[in-house]
Amino acid sequence: MTPPGDPPSALARPNPSADIDPRCPDPPVPGPEAARQILVLGLGNSLMSDDAAGLEAARRVRPACRRLPSVIVSETEEMGLSLLDVMAGYRAVILVDAVCTRRQGVGKLWEQTDRDLASVPEFSPHFLGVGEVLRLGRALGMAMPGEVRILGIEVADPWTVGHGLTPMVEAAIPRAAARILAWLEEMTGAAS
To answer: Is the Cβ–Cβ distance between 99 and 162 less than 8 Å?
Structure first.
């Protein structure tokens, strides 16, 4: 029951500070400047040997990207729905990740856009691919990137626990980094 004189909306509104745990802050949200920025995002798992190929490629391009103020280089070991918040707000995103198609030799580079990604017929909230994450973000009205380029690095075994890339995948990283920098040159108009 609402006490006389208090508007019902004042009681219905929870105390916003009561729900904030200072030990678990919200992830940073890109500000308005992100709409003009390009995100280079290395994906992978640093504990799974060749699955870290995307992470390593992002590390290799970071020094060259320091002179490009519109480019942010980041790495994440997150997947699925977690990528919504990571990609939202950017003008364009370049994703680099290990792939295991077994159609070509180890070290081959695969280039795609988000339009090339097939839709999965059965959605699962626990694991969504990049294509599904982008479609979901757009369906929810989130500011998803207008341009998404994907660079896959073919690996033979992304499931073996271990540190460091195998020699054939390691040899592909400079080529992957060069391709990312060429894309950035095209997207920003800056010479590399």
So the answer is: no
- Ramachandran sector of residue 30 (left: φ over 0; alpha: ψ -120 to 50; beta: rest): beta
Which of 156, 128, 153, 154 has the alpha carbon at shortest distance from 140?
128
Q: What is the CATH number of the domain that holds 134?
A: 3.40.50.1450
Evaluate whether residue 6 is within a structural domain: no
Tell me how many domains the chain contains. Answer: 1
Vertex 37, ends 35 and 43: CA angle to 5°?
110
For position 91, what pLDDT does the model report?
Answer: 93
CA distance 37 to 108: 28
Tens-digit pLDDT profile for residues 17-69: 344 434 444 434 455 555 679 999 999 999 998 999 999 999 999 999 998 99
- pLDDT beneath 50: ranges in the chain: 1-29, 119-126, 192
The Cα–Cα gap between 64 and 13 comes to 49
Q: Work out the mean pLDDT of the chain and round it to a whole number.
A: 79
- Is residue 26 situated within a structural domain? no
Q: SS3 breakdown of the chain: % helix, strand, coil, rounded to 5?
A: 40, 20, 45
Whether 1 maps to a domain, the answer reads: no
